[in-house]
TrEMBL record:
<comment type="similarity">
    <text>Belongs to the KAE1 / TsaD family.</text>
</comment>
<dbReference type="InterPro" id="IPR043129">
    <property type="entry name" value="ATPase_NBD"/>
</dbReference>
<feature type="binding site">
    <location>
        <position position="111"/>
    </location>
    <ligand>
        <name>Fe cation</name>
    </ligand>
</feature>
<feature type="binding site">
    <location>
        <position position="184"/>
    </location>
    <ligand>
        <name>substrate</name>
    </ligand>
</feature>
<dbReference type="InterPro" id="IPR017861">
    <property type="entry name" value="KAE1/TsaD"/>
</dbReference>
<feature type="binding site">
    <location>
        <position position="180"/>
    </location>
    <ligand>
        <name>substrate</name>
    </ligand>
</feature>
<keyword id="KW-0012">Acyltransferase</keyword>
<keyword id="KW-0808">Transferase</keyword>
<dbReference type="GO" id="GO:0005506">
    <property type="term" value="F:iron ion binding"/>
</dbReference>
<comment type="function">
    <text>Required for the formation of a threonylcarbamoyl group on adenosine at position 37 (t(6)A37) in tRNAs that read codons beginning with adenine. Is involved in the transfer of the threonylcarbamoyl moiety of threonylcarbamoyl-AMP (TC-AMP) to the N6 group of A37, together with TsaE and TsaB. TsaD likely plays a direct catalytic role in this reaction.</text>
</comment>
<feature type="binding site">
    <location>
        <position position="167"/>
    </location>
    <ligand>
        <name>substrate</name>
    </ligand>
</feature>
<protein>
    <recommendedName>
        <fullName>tRNA N6-adenosine threonylcarbamoyltransferase</fullName>
        <ecNumber>2.3.1.234</ecNumber>
    </recommendedName>
</protein>
<keyword id="KW-0479">Metal-binding</keyword>
<dbReference type="InterPro" id="IPR017860">
    <property type="entry name" value="Peptidase_M22_CS"/>
</dbReference>
<dbReference type="GO" id="GO:0005737">
    <property type="term" value="C:cytoplasm"/>
</dbReference>
<dbReference type="GO" id="GO:0002949">
    <property type="term" value="P:tRNA threonylcarbamoyladenosine modification"/>
</dbReference>
<keyword id="KW-0819">tRNA processing</keyword>
């Protein structure tokens, strides 16, 4: 018998739904919330309201795209943690109501585990064990994956996430939110060695990005707006270069420590063209097998929730109707 799962993701500012059959993603529908742009960041209250408006049409679209009916579902999955509590609540409550109405099992998924397993949505997925550098707006982790449900965080940020480093430095440069994709675009036309910013010395496999933000701030305070404007491409390229250096140095260290040579990246920042190139170049240089999820599965999406839920379904890992979301992991 085949296994058909509907998955819902609502942890931050994207309302998303996906249908997968036997681990194959048939639809991956995302409604981006543009309401936050004018505030320079996600406004939690507005995000919850937008989820409430989006959830029914998004689930409907994902089902239609997949060619499946509600009656064909074997389970309903949702993102349980971490995220904005009001945003999570909308997805959790919707999934619970649907499971109750259809009398189908419920599967709770951890958002960060799902980012890692997005790598399995691939024509030739990585073999286990693999290492995954998960870099998003809220997290920066190196994860050792021994099987789909056996993941261990072996390094993480002690302050800002890599995505925050992109967004906060972009803000200092006067760029609109979220700055990451724009820094990426400008960096492609700039000189990464034009300016030098502080790289932290953090023990083990952990990361820190708050020093970079301060280093960029102090540098910019000494410059005129005209200088910043005239050098925006080089500034973006240099900031991006520093972030990638910080990430890749720790990833190399993790490879040395674990001996694992299947290396993945995941999360919103894995959409960054400079990071993707750096991973491929280091892969060639050091003999790693490298993997990057297709673009649409890098930033927040429900396809990654669906694939994770599929493995949980196979393991019989279900939750109950009294499940509740959690803002923290
Ligand atoms: O995984 P994600 O969509 O949401 C979270 O779970 O946080 O990641 C969003 C983060 C934002 O900080 C955004 O600026 C960053 O990913 N991002 C990028 C790029 N695309 C998205 N950062 C750098 N370059 C990009 N191309
Ligand atoms: Zn995410």
């Amino acid at each position: 018998m085949s296994v058909t799962i509907l998955a819902i993701e609502s942890s931050c500012d994207e309302t998303a739904a996906s249908v997968c059959v036997d681990g194959k993603i048939l639809s991956n529908y995302i409604a981006n919330q543009t309401v936050h742009e004018k505030y320079g960041g996600v406004v939690p209250e507005l995000a919850s309201r937008a989820h409430l408006q989006n959830i029914v049409p998004v689930v409907d679209a994902a089902l239609k795209q997949s060619g499946h009916l509600l009656s064909q579902l074997n389970a309903i999955a949702f993102t349980q943690a971490p995220g904005l509590i009001g945003s999570l609540l909308v997805g959790v409550q919707f999934a619970k109501s649907l499971a109750l109405a259809l009398d189908k099992p419920l599967i709770a998924v951890h958002h960060m585990q799902a980012h890692v397993l997005a790598n399995l949505i691939n024509e030739s997925p990585p073999a286990f064990p693999f290492l995954c550098l998960t870099v998003s707006g809220g997290h920066t982790q190196i994860v050792l994956a021994k099987s789909p449900l056996d993941l261990t965080v072996i390094g993480e940020t002690i302050d800002d996430a890599a995505g925050e480093a992109f967004d906060k430095t972009a803000k200092l440069l006067g760029l609109p939110y979220p700055g990451g994709p724009l820094v990426d675009k400008y960096a492609q036309q700039g000189n990464p060695l034009a300016f030098k910013f502080a790289e932290p010395q953090i023990p083990e496999l952990n990361f820190s990005f708050s020093g970079l933000k301060t280093s960029v701030l102090y540098f910019l305070q000494k410059q005129t707006p005209e200088f910043i404007q005239a050098n925006i491409l080089d500034l973006c390229a240099s900031v991006q270069y520093t972030i990638i250096q910080i990430l890749m140095k720790k990833l190399k260290k993790a490879v040395q420590q674990t001996g694992v040579r299947n290396i993945c990246i995941a999360g919103g920042v894995s959409a960054n063209s400079g990071l993707r190139k750096a991973l491929q170049e280091d892969g060639k240089k050091y003999g790693w097998n490298t993997f990057i999820p297709p673009f649409e599965y890098c930033t927040d999406n429900a396809g990654m929730i669906a694939i994770t839920a599929y493995y949980k379904y196979l393991a019989g890992d279900f939750t109950t109707l009294d499940a509740s979301p959690s803002a923290r992991a």
